[in-house]
Specification:
Layout: H1 7-14, H2 21-29, E1 39-46, E2 51-57, E3 63-71, H3 72-86, H4 90-103, E4 104-107
Parallel strand pairs: 1-4
Antiparallel strand pairs: 1-2, 2-3
C-alpha cells in the first residue's frame, strides 16, 4: 500500500473493498459500485437510536431497501482505526469523514448531535 496513492484508493485497499463491512461502506460513500456484491446503497440513514440503515444488494443479487449496517459510533470508530492504520494526514482524514458524513442522507438523532469525526 503506497502513500503516494490517493486516500480513497488506500481506504478501499485497506478495507478489502466489498469483502468487509467497512470496505462496503467505504465503496458506498465513495459511490463506487463493486463488480461483485454485497454492496450498500449510495446513502445511509441514522435512526433516532443511532443505527445506520442502508439499501443492500447481497451476493445473490437480491435487493433490500433498508438493512441495519451498524451503530454510527461503531462505524466511526472503525473508520478512525483505518485512518490511523493508513497514517492519513489531517487533510485526508477530514476529507474521509466529510465523505462519510455526505453518505448519511438523513440523521434522525437529536438536533444537538455530535459530528461524525
Amino acid at each position: 500500500m503506497s502513500d503516494d496513492q490517493p486516500w480513497q484508493q488506500r481506504l478501499v485497499d485497506a478495507t478489502h473493498g466489498a469483502s468487509t463491512q467497512t470496505g462496503a461502506i467505504a465503496l458506498a460513500m465513495l459511490h463506487v459500485w463493486p463488480r461483485t456484491c454485497p454492496a450498500y446503497g449510495d446513502e445511509g440513514v441514522i435512526t433516532s437510536s443511532g443505527m445506520v440503515l442502508a439499501a443492500f444488494k447481497d451476493r445473490e443479487g437480491d435487493y433490500a431497501p433498508l438493512v441495519p449496517v451498524g451503530m454510527i459510533g461503531d462505524i466511526v470508530d472503525d473508520f478512525r482505526r483505518v485512518a490511523d492504520h493508513l497514517k492519513l494526514n489531517d487533510a485526508d482524514r477530514v476529507a474521509m469523514f466529510v465523505e462519510l458524513q455526505k453518505w448519511i442522507s438523513v440523521d434522525m438523532r437529536a438536533v444537538g448531535k455530535a459530528p461524525l469525526s
